[in-house]
Every structure is written in structure tokens, then in C-alpha cells.
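User: Could you check the structure of this?
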Amino acid sequence: MTLFPIAVILMSIAGGLVLVSFVRYFSIKQKYILSLGDSREEMDLPVADFAGFVRRLSGMIRIPTISWTDRRRRDLSQFKRFREELETMYPLVHKQMDREVIGDFGLVFHWKGKNSGKKPVLFLAHYDVVPAQEEGNEKWTHPPFSGLVEDGILWGRGALDIKCQLAFQMEAAETLLAEGRVPDRDIWFAFGGDEEISGMEGAGKIAALFRERNLAFDFVLDEGGIIARDQLAFLKGTPAALIGQAEKGFVTFKVTAPGESGHSSMPPLEGTAVGRLARGIVRLEKRPFPKRLDPVLANMLERFVPHVPMGLGLVFANLWLTRPLILHIFSKNRTTDSLVCTTRAATVCRAGEQENVLPGEAACLVNHRILPGDSIARVREYHRRTLKDDGLEVAQAGDWMANEPLAAAQAGGRAFELIETILAHTHPDAVAVPFLVNGSTDSKHYRGLTENILRFTPLVLTPEDVSTIHGVNERVSLENLEKGLAFYIRLFCHL
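Assistant: Sure, the predicted C-alpha cells are below.
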């Protein structure tokens, strides 16, 4: 065969690929241009007491409901005080809803709707917070439990994570109850007091009780996604509402290297326990898990197509062709890389107590966030193959409960579309997209009670804002809070 026919064939193939790529681009672009239609018609919504809401959230922040890894350090009186203060803050909620306290940390409300034939919905939040310690040069501008409002900003631990979400839900319900409104279906609220240390005593016990009662929910809404501003450069300032539809799993393995104890002046010829462990950890870090584009992330990129330049839109719309390129680009940044693979991080190492004594054992905790499609068993097998040292022991460990990843039941769906429609009113400049949540939330306990778990808090946050979550100077703007409250009021009216 001469070169001319080959060139013609190659050009035909290239032309076909270009044509298919453009056809798919315009098809996806049209598909995800949100057509609100009648949903943009204004409905009669109650007006919340926003100043009172800010005071109440400030009061919640002033109660230091701190979850410590050493559970013995928790002050149970503060958690009890928080629940008691809620009774004063939201009298109608406590009078007209069924309320249950589950153990020392669980709090449940049941708001009965007009139509018992419809599946109820479940809203989650947690009222515990991480410690607010200061390290090095990082200092709090205002005391972390002051709940201070200054220059349109509310300061304090829990302002973002996540007493604000609990306050949104209670305030919206109280506002609607004050006008005599009844939801179309039953609404449940489940608030845990130990989410920051795995949620076993709060959400875990609540979910177990729901299973005993054979409850099932149309959807569950928890924390986990935000409205990200200036966090995705290709959007050029357009905020992205990241609605979590899937969540990574969590497991920590302890890698232990045995050794020969003795005097440090006569180390073993084959090396010490510390050296053996170090070699194993280096092997783990040099062999990352395979990169994969989860269906939720693939759908996220497709939904960006109408909002990015055509060149990038062609890439996002044709993942059947460009997937390797996307994975390569994502792997160059620690944030995006964590979205396309199961991660592993050596976090805590222990060996020896004195510089002139050989330790008889060295150990390291390796924490993993597991991509949907992988599993705890697969991570364990990864360790076995990668370490290549039968003398290294691998076992589950750590202070937090291990859990398998939660894959999305479906891309989009009715609940996603409902949130997308509400955002079109309260945050009209935001692009709603599905998202894979890296962290671990209370929603993991509710698997099996619904086919649709979403994770989202209606706050517009910049990278600087996000850095204060679990860090110093956690704070939220009043403008953010006002829009977030409007989101929940409108959402409850549409259920």
C-alpha cells in the first residue's frame, strides 16, 4: 500500500474524530444549560428574623462543644448545655416537633408533613467542633469561642464547620412554623455531637435507631460540598456549587517492623527496625494507586462545558478521548490528584525512647482515603504487594472507624435537580455540579436508609475561607449566612 491511501485514511479518521468531538460538545452544552422555566416564578416565602438568627448562631459558637481524639477530655456538660440552649432559641420547633435525645450526643427532630404517603427527607448536621488550639505564629484574631460579630463577619469555631448548617435548618423550620406552614412530606433532622471523631456515638446510634424503625428516606442532605469561588481557575471567577454525591472511604493501617533491641553501638548487620520500616514506607509512597475518573467527577466536568471556553469545553465533553489527558493534568496538583485515586499518607511514626538504645519495634500509621470502586480489602492487598517484606506486619488501626467509600446511586437525580433549582434563586451566578467528597462525614452512617445522599452547605467560600476550617480564624460573612438561610427556607417550601 502506498503512502497516499494511508494518508487519506488517517485524514478521514482525524476528520471523523473532530466531527464527533464537536457534535458531542454542542450536545452536552445544550443538555446542561439549565432551563428554569416556571421554576423562576416567585412564591410567597416568609421573611426570617435575620438579626435574631445571627445572635442565635453566635450563641451556639460560644458553647465549646469540643470533640477530642482522647474522648476522656470531652466536657459532656457543654453538649448538654448546647441541646438545652436550642430549646430557648427555637421554642416552636421544640413544641411542635417530636424530639428525642439519643445517648450523650444524638439529637433528633421529626416534623410531620401533610402527606404521609411520600417518603420523608432527612437533614443532617453536627454540633461538635475540633479544638481551637494555636500553633507557632498562627494566632486567632478574636477568641475562638467568642461568637463575635465585627464588620459584617461572625467569628468562631463552628461558624463554617458546621454549626451554621444546624442553625440554617432550625431557623428555617422555626420561621415556617411561625407562619403555620406544614411541609408537604415528613422532614427529619438528625444532629450528632461527635462527627469530628467518627460519629459513632451520635450519627451511628441515630442511624441504628432509624433502622430499627424501618425508616427510609427519599434523600439525605449532609455537609461536605460548598460553593467554591476562585478555586477552579478555568471558571474565571464563576462560583461552583459542589454538591457531593459520592464520598471517599476511610481506613488507617499500622505498618510494624520488628527489630532486635540492644545497644546502639552494635547495630544489626541487616539493619534496624527503623530502617526496615523506613524502606517499607518509601516503597508505599513511590507506588501510588492507579488514577481513575469516578463517574461523579466525569459528570462534573461535563456540566462545566457551557461555562468554559470552547477549547476546554471540547476536552470536558469528550472524556472518551481526553480521559488520559485529564488524569495527567489532575495528577500534577495535590488537591485534584486526591480526586482521582485512593490516597495514602504516613501520619504517625513511633520507635524507640532513647538515642543510644535500639528499638525492638518500629511502627507507622498510614491513613487512606478510598476512591469509590476501591475497597478496604484492596488497600490491604496493595500494602502486601508493595511492601515486599513478609516481616512487616500490616493491621487496621487508628482512632477512627474505617468505612468503605460511598458511590453515587445516580448522576444528578431529583434531589440534585431540586438543589440546583433552589440555587438558581438564592445563588444565581453559581454553577451546580456533582462532586466527590474527600473527607468523611456523618452521612456514611446512613447508607442503606436511602439511595440518594447529598452533601452540601450553601456558603460561598474562597481558598482562604476554606483554610480556616479546622484552622485558625474560622469565620463567615453575614452576607453568606443570609443567602444560606434563604436557601433553606426556599428548600423546605419545595419539598
